[in-house]
Amino acid sequence: MRSIVSPVAVIVLLAGVAAAGFFLMQPPPGSPPEVWVVYAGDPGNPYVDAARDGVLGAGRNRTFAYREFAPATADRLEDAFANAPASTPDLVIVQDSGTWAGAADRWAAARPGTRFVVIDGEAASRPNVRTVVIAADGVSCLAGVLAAAAADGRPVAVLLGMPHPVMDAYRDGFTAGVESIAPGTRVEVRYVGNDTRGYADPAGAAVIAEDLYRNGTAVIYAACGGSSLGVIDAAEERPRRFAIGVDRDLSPLGPDVVLGSAVKHLDGIVQAAIEDGLGDAFAPGGAECGLADGATELVLNPRFGAYGPIVAGKRKAAEGMEE
Predict the structure, then answer these.
(1) Which of 30, 186, 207, 210 is such that its CA lies 20 to 30 A from the CA of 271?
(2) Given the DSSP bridges, would you call strands 2-4 and 64-69 parallel, antiparallel or unpaired?
(3) pLDDT tens digits, 91-126
(4) CATH fold for domain 139-262+298-320
(5) How many CB atoms lie within 10 A of CB 194?
(6) Pairing mode, if any, of strands 91-95 and 34-38?
(7) Please, which residues bridge with residue 221 across strands?
C-alpha cells in the first residue's frame, strides 16, 4: 500500500488496470488512516484527473494511506470490501456520476464504521454517508452562451458520454444558454455510447463530431470525459469549427479550436472531502455546490477572450438555474 505523506505527497498513478497499493491485511497499530478512492473512469478522463489532483492536495496537508480503484478494477474493489477488516478503510470517496449505479449505498450499509463521501451520486440516508452533487446546469448555460456567440447563427451541438440523469443538466443548461442569446438556434443532442464506455471512446466521438461539423455544426459542447479528445481532433480538421470542454481546462489540447471549458473544481471538492472525512467536520446528508459557490467555472481560452463580456453578462441568470 502507498502512503501520501505530508508535506510532500508521493503517489504513483496507474493506468486503471490494477488497484493501487492493494493489500488485504490489518494495518499495523499506529498506522495512518486509510482512504480508498473509487474513480468514475480511468486516467486521461478529465473528470478523473481533476479528482486525483484533489488527493494530492489533501496529501500535502496530512498523512494517510491510499488505494485507488477504477471501473476496470471493479472485481478487485469488491474483493477488497469483502476481505478488509471491519475498521478498514476509514474513508471511501466514490466518484459516481452514474458509473457505480448506486453501489456506494450497498457498500456503506455493509460497513457502518466507514465514512463515505459520494460525489455526483444518489443520496443515501445513512449516518456514515455524505453526498456532494456538483450542479452542472449553471456552468453549462454559460457554455451555451459561449457556443451561440461563436456560432454566429450556425447550429451547435452537445455531445454527452451516455444517457443518464446526471448528464441531463449538461444538456438542459447548454440548451438554455444558447436560447438566451440566439433564440431558434438549432441544438443537436448526441451520445457517444449507451453506457460508461462512452466516456472513454475518443475515436467514436471523433466520428460523431466529424459528421456534425461536416453538416454545418459550428460548436460542440463535449461533455463526454476522455472522449472529448476526439471532438477536439475533429474540430482541428475543419475551418471555423470549435469545441467546448468539460471538467478541466482543455484549451492547451486545442488552442486554436477549444473556446473554453466548463470546469468542475473537483480537486478542491475531493481535497475537502478527504480532510473533512478524516477529521471532525464530517457530516452525513447531502450538499450541492455549483457556479455561485465557485465549484464550477467557465474558463475561457484567452485566444477567444472577446466573448468574455457576453458570457459575463449571463452569469447571474446561469447561477439562478441552480437555485
Answers:
(1) 30
(2) antiparallel
(3) 999 998 777 877 888 999 999 999 999 998 877 789
(4) Rossmann fold (3.40.50)
(5) 11
(6) parallel
(7) 158, 244
- CATH 3.40.50.2300 residue ranges of the chain are 2-135+266-289, 139-262+298-320
Q: Which amino acid is at 106?
A: R
CA atoms of 320 and 197, how far apart (whole Å): 33
* Cell output for 237: 480538421
pTM of the model: 0.86
CATH class of 2-135+266-289: alpha beta
Sign, CA torsion 5/7/10/16 = positive
From 45, 72, 52, select the one nearest 222 (Cα to Cα): 45
Residues 4-36: tens digit of each pLDDT: 333 323 333 333 333 343 332 344 556 899 999
Q: How far from chain centre, in Å, is Cα 302?
A: 23
Q: What is the pLDDT of residues 258-282, one digit of tens each?
A: 999 999 999 999 999 999 999 999 9
